[in-house]
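anyone seen this seq b4? input:
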Amino acid sequence: MRPPLVEKIIQSDTLSTEEILEQEGRIYTFLNPVSYLSAMKERTVFETFDGIFADGALLVKSIRLLYGKTPKRRSFDMTSLAPSLFSHAEKNSKRIAIVASKQEEVKQAVVILRAQYPNLYITYWRNGYFTSANEMKDEAHHITDIAPDYLIVGMGTLLQEKMLLYMKAQGFTGIAFTCGGFIHQLCGGKDYYPEWIDRYNLRFLYRMYKEPHTRSRYAKAAIVFPPLFTGERLRHLFKKV
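predicted toks r here
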């Protein structure tokens, strides 16, 4: 028996990129060691998703060590899933909506994406800040009416997931992804991570260097995540016995 979050990650790993990008009416999110800790407290939110992907080498290695499975590392960034989505959308005339980051950043990101993918059809974008849950729900109604093929939402863990759950409840028929800090990273340059950083799975160290505000998060991942993740494994082992 595996914990529901781990089970969902392992099941989601069987999906091909083509399936992820073509099966309509689905919502996906990504967990790294820090967001996994939040997800443990809000399991019902995350278990509702159609797919959860392992974002980060530490989570991948932890699942391999404790559960004997090695899910692929998938992130919504330019080192992983994002280029596949944008290329597919450009080739197939898919419409994209983006709700993420600050207004000036999302606007800049749209310019960058259109320069890189000249035929990309981005129909709607706005910042990821809302003054209330009601405003967020109103936006969910609005985007459902616009009916983009792909929706990309970056609002921080839990808020972005709740936004996608609102979308699904409203009958959104497209395919939606959380994207964390992707828009912010994109504004920092097309190749946010140097090639050698990506190759050696040192993305967390690079972010600590580039974005000082992430240092406490990664320290939490290094100190808090391993014992809690191991403890979760042990609890489920004892339940099985």
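Residues 225-240 form the longest helix (16 residues). The radius of gyration is 18 Å. kinda curious what u guys think
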